Amino acid sequence: MHTKTAPSREELIGRATELVPMLGKNAIWQEENRVLHQDTIDALTESGLLRLTLPSRYGGYEADTTTVVDVLSELALGDGATSWVATVWGISTWLTGLFPDEVQDEVFGAGHLRISGTFAPSAVGVPTAGGIILNGKWGFNTAATQSTWNAHAAVRVVDGQQPEPVVVLVPMSDLEVIDDWYSSGMRGSGSVTTVAKDVFVPDARVLPMMPVLQAGQHRSEINATSRLWNTPFLPWASAVTTGTHWGLARAAYATFMERLPTRKITYTDYEHQAHAPLTHLQVADATARIDEAGFHAHRVAERVDAKTGEPWSLQERVTARLDLGLTVQRAREAIDVLSTASGASAILSTVPMQRIARDSQTISMHAYHHANTNLELYGRVICGLEPNTVFL
Known about the structure:
Blueprint (H helix, E strand, L loop, with lengths): L8 H25 L4 H10 L17 H14 L1 H17 L4 H7 L7 E2 L6 E6 L2 E11 L7 E8 L7 E8 L4 E3 L13 E11 L3 E3 H7 L17 H8 L1 H18 L17 H30 L7 H27 L11 H13 L6 H12 L10
Parallel strand pairs: 1-4, 2-4
Antiparallel strand pairs: 2-3, 3-7, 4-5, 5-8, 6-7
């Protein structure tokens, strides 16, 4: 184990920028094969971008939230699926940092930096000597087959007691895979279903979920002094997951502007699309919505960074969810404007716009990201009602 000086924010974003052409080149292969290309994984690893949320004693960077958001947004300029996989690996790495230090030694000390997982408690753990016996399955398990460990939500059931939500850390080798990831978008993310059948999970790799959700409490003595693990999980996750959405909107803009000089508007006398007043309105409209998405992504990230170690009020927590929802909403709106303006040629698989639109639509349906759900939650609390979720 070792600690080293983390690269600067500018250098980390620059490393992501350097990967954009390669990610764009691999995107079609990744769609067809429904996983990341090995060259993509190697590049993410060699660039150090899988170390953003890794404890420094294992060579990690413990990057601030705003930097993580901007790096993930930059990756999405090349490919949304790659950005989302990097997001999931980063979040699951952070979750692993909550476990006892000896568990982190087992995982991080062995060099495992690709940890996937989901946060829907769709498996049951029954206590046994020294741990639990885990049974159940998790859908939408991003990049599971290209990961070495899984951090999953489950429910621990004890006779005579209320079921307790927990987070479990399981080697991928202990799980079965159902290859069911045939989706309209985010195809390269490899978000298959995984199954646990009578898997033993030792107590050290079982973490009560509610303290994690509400207060960021954990069992790592060393990470307790790190600013990265001194924030509640869900406001931090709300911020981190904005990066892919905002990046996809930026990618749509870049794609549109790259094609614009060579396009006309068929069945009109506009030999250059750039000369049409409609195009001017569309570009301005999309730009404003992309800027608004970036504003909300940065507002929640900057608040997380500013409130390290401080308690979060209920209103601040639902505002974090609001910022995520509005990032999703504005990004989707911008992509829709630009996709509509791109014409029939944009449906071809060689034109990134169609993939960007499908990826954005797919990821926006994620239950935690859904704009309507997040906006309703915020409005509900502001109007004086209790939140209808513990995921705050």
